[in-house]
Amino acid sequence: MKNYDVIIIGGGHAGIEASLASARMGAETLLITQNLDHIGQMSCNPAIGGIAKGHVVREIDAMGGEMGQNTDASALQFKMLNSSRGPAVWSPRAQCDKVLYQRRMKQQLEKTPKLHTHQAEGLSFVTEKGKVIAVQTQFGDKFEAKAFVLCCGTFMRGLMHFGPQQLPGGRTGDTAADAISDSLKNDLGLELMRLKTGTPPRVLAKTIDFDQLERQDGESGKFSYWTRDKAYETIDRGGIPQMPCYIGRTSAETKRVITENLHLSPMYNGSIDAIGTRYCPSIEDKIHRFADKDSHQIFLEPEGVFTEEYYLNGISTSLPVHVQNQIVHSIPGLENAEIARYAYAVEYDVVSPHQTLNSLALKPWPNLFVAGQINGTSGYEEAAGQGLIAGANAAGLVAGKPPLVLERDQAYIGVMIDDLVTKDISEPYRLFTSRAEYRLLLRQDNADRRLSKIAYDYGLLPYEKYKIIEEKETLINNEIERLKNERSHGKSLWEHLSSHKNTYDSVVGESDFSEEIKEQIQIDARYECYIQREKQQVERQKRLAKNPIPEEIDYLNMTGLSNEARNKLSRYRPVDLGQAARIDGVTPAEIGLIQVHIKRWEESQKIKA
Ligand SMILES: Cc1cc2nc3c(=O)[nH]c(=O)nc-3n(C[C@H](O)[C@H](O)[C@H](O)COP(=O)(O)OP(=O)(O)OC[C@H]3O[C@@H](n4cnc5c(N)ncnc54)[C@H](O)[C@@H]3O)c2cc1C
Ligand SMILES: NC(=O)c1ccc[n+]([C@@H]2O[C@H](COP(=O)([O-])OP(=O)(O)OC[C@H]3O[C@@H](n4cnc5c(N)ncnc54)[C@H](O)[C@@H]3O)[C@@H](O)[C@H]2O)c1
Fold this sequence. Notes:
six-stranded antiparallel beta sheet, 19% strand, 609 residues, binds flavin-adenine dinucleotide, FAD/NAD(P)-binding domain, binds nicotinamide-adenine-dinucleotide, MnmG, globular, single chain, flavoprotein, 19 helices
């Protein structure tokens, strides 16, 4: 029997950030994962970031996580998506060298003090007096800890579909993890559900006719606040070059092949019961749902410099392998392409997230935390964001700290977790900027200003890093003060800067400030009134959240509630009125009713006492 403070099970994107957060907070941490060489493997496309996902990477980075730095160190190209639109929706995205990403991440874990990595499969939990006390592996080892984080990704009872062919597995090349799923159901009494995702084929570069495709180069930029002082071009990537992506399009022939073979897709002939990602649809889904469209765009993404494989972003499918060949060959430029790896779909078990708190602890098992795809999300970044919170909270629990919960006005990570625990998750959840109600507060460019103090106070971020952000904040605030006091042509410089026609340079002239600081000041000035409006909305929401709901409140017998509200409130058991108000189907009038009911309940308690 071996003893730790915290044990993490599963070394994917969630497990990595959970392990690092826990160890960096000083907890003796063990990461158990099925294959150490697959730590941080990108199960699907070799890219980090994108719409709203890029915000999450910046947030993880600002809180001391690894995903941003690891992306910078393995990036093949960087792009800022949505840069023609407002700053709230700018979204950084990078193509990565898949192998370098994984290898560097593994080494980062190995180099971290207090973090131990161990190759094994977690089979079952041992419990005692309402707590999880140990996990057992296939080798007969029993590892004890004070807190646990489960990050099994797509592996629990994973079943892969290649057309009619079904193979057990968490993803190709990896075995499924069935036993732990049984333990969650039978030993811990948890409710599980089934979801599915998929991936497109990979083809070999020498068989692609690049002349028929549109070349797409990257631009300068990077993710991490801690590599920001270095120019993008000078980040140490062990000499790997930058690589272009290519754009192609499906043809009328693609549509014909798919339409004629739709009955062979497990998604359409009923072989897969699980619900898939509406927002990352398969090519058969797109052709079926958008029947009026003649063609769909695809991105050809290099998987790395040590491989000739290209990822065909946009044609994820679970059609049989012979149909996959016809689909690929119907795309101009891919007429002679050789498929190196077939596309497939995978079904897996998820821990229904209504059983989880905002801290990511399970309600019935307060020292067991869950993070990543196992909570019903889809995406590396979503998984990593949850991992960081779950790992911090596991270590926090051991150290006797109150839970670290990010609110909806503080971080996209907070929006995501709150959505997971209050909304019906019936399909894989992915983040969008539209999921956040306070988009101007939660920009990708200000994640450090929003979150590094919180992370420092909780013990996640060391002082030498926090100091950099603290100094930056002081510079920004002093400069804003100066701009508000200095006047020119009858207006303060700040008022001049608030006009969309002006820039910091055009108003102030030469200065010693970095581009990053000038950008912050400019955004703060231009969007001041909108930012103020969002802050007022936050205050209103906070007033509601100040009303905690006693655990004893019985919604099932509460008169005046609709059946939908009654059932959902009983299922999700919101901790305060703010959270109750965010549950789909609960109306403002019903919130008023609950408020009255709480008052009555409190008075009855006083009389009893
Ligand atoms: C086919 C496919 C296509 C996908 N497409 C994309 C995509 O294009 N882009 C995207 O952003 N997301 C995609 N996803 C989802 C993405 O892979 C996940 O969202 C992300 O990897 C989830 O991270 P995670 O840490 O939760 O789990 P994973 O990355 O799945 O990692 C889980 C880890 O836990 C280990 N493990 C599991 N059970 C046990 C156990 N009992 N004991 C020990 N170790 C265990 C596994 O070996 C694995 O290392 C896809 C997933 C798959 C499988
Ligand atoms: N295949 C699946 O079933 C599945 C499941 C879960 C997640 N995912 C993946 O999650 C990831 C994030 O999803 P997403 O919808 O934001 O996709 P994304 O990040 O690939 O695309 C977002 C936007 O980025 C742009 N873009 C895409 N590829 C690009 C490239 N190579 N170069 C420049 N710009 C590019 C496009 O304008 C696109 O609309 C995707 O990579 C998707 O494949 C897929």
